[in-house]
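Researcher: Please generate the 3D structure of the following complex. Treat every line as part of one assembly.
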Amino acid sequence: MLVIDQLSVSYGAIKAVREVSLRVEKGEIVALLGPNGAGKTSLISAIIGLVPASGGRVVLDGVDITRRRTEDIVRLGATVTPEGRHIFADLSVGQNLRLGAATRRDRDGIAADTERMLAMFPILRERFASRAQTLSGGEQQQLAIARSMMSRPKLLMLDEPSLGLAPKLVEQIFGLITELRTQGLTLLVVEQNAYDALAMADRAYIMNSGRLQFSGRSEELLASDDLMELYLGTGTGVHAGAAS
Amino acid sequence: MDYVIQQVLNAASIGGEYALLALGLAIVFSVMGLVNFAHGELITISGFTMYAIFIFAAPTSAWGLLPVGIIAAIAAAVVFERVAFRPVRNAPATTGLLTAFGLSIVVKNFFVSVVGATRPRAVPTPDWLSSHIEIGAVHIQTLQLLEAAVTAVALMALLALLRGTNIGLAMRAAAKDFNTVRLMGIRANQVVLAAFVISGLLAGLAAVFIMARRGAVDPFMGFTPVLKAFVAAVLGGFGSLGGAVVGGLALGAAEVLFQIILPESIAGYRDAFVFLFVGGVLILRPQGLFGRKHQFGDKEG
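Model: Done. Output below.
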């Protein structure tokens, strides 16, 4: 589905991403983990074309999208759900969903998908006519995901879906991501919240200082306190403390 | 009563013209952060196109010149975007500003040196525009009535576009967060193009009214109206669409009001008093009537 080969991103003299290679297969949930400033968001932004790659290649379903425009990549079936604060604050919930489907012309399909999203996120039905600005952080995150789904992506990349959310909401959002996969979606999830992300993901990549440090199956990481401690700085003890 | 109605209409027509122009500036600014100092040149180009058609095509009626003026302004706005502003779209804001200044100078001097229009040239407009109609005891100039009405219709159409169409919603969303609009698969070029087409259309409408009022073209005719439109936009809160409309109408009202209340001996200083009034408002509300408070460096604002 997605193949990234030796991708680099530079901002002037600063190298945010250094020759990262990774792949995401169809139907997988892949977690991209690492501390703040590791280059995760830069990598996602380069994949979707919001920042130019300074080297390497991005291939989506066999199509080289490295130098494509963001809007063209989205039309090819990949999209990014940015952090929840990137909802359209001045527009209503309904208008946000409508813009999510802006590339589509099938009115009936759009109406059906809107209904599906409102069934999945009941709070959005309640707040359908409200300005998105008035939603809580968790509600905004749900809106951001629902809005992305309206374009019927094949590959959805989520940037920090748990950011700023209460643990209960994190659980709900991650449950939802798992459900999206059962509907045939492929997901790449950028997270700082390593444990919850690993519990849901099939595989994980860990980035630090712009480089890929580890790649492997989620169980492998979860089973090894050494690996968790080494790459994510979170041994079991920390987790137990945080979860209780 | 008769006098009051006439003055209100006077204020509405002048204010409407400022509102049309200020709105064009505000739309382009809100979507792409560009302060378009070449906006006045759209009026000039519109006027000279009407003049050229009048000279070369010699139409039997001046009617046909009106749509020509509007289409010319839209086309010029599109060309400005494609040729001048698109290459610097992602450059710092000052680059866009200087590009607009440069464009303005180039267009003015094209008309001065290439067209050789150093003196104003007369352009006819339909007679009925300058005629009067009687409603009861009130004597109304058709042009003013039309100007107020067209402004109102244009504003309502724009409101419908911004509320009820994908491109309108995308323009509003892009004002805050252009990248996320692109994540919806909406083409950035289309959103920017829409902003310029609308600003060109509004400038074209204003240009037709300006032509009807002054009956002549010259290379600098766009300067004063757009200067006033800038003042109106700042008064309303730069970048706010509602603010541009209210600012335009308020400026028109202030001009008419000072025209009435100032004694004859200092009537020539009308604009000074108007700007004093605007300055006073901005001391009380530095962000303008409808502007939001911005912190410098905060792009999410």
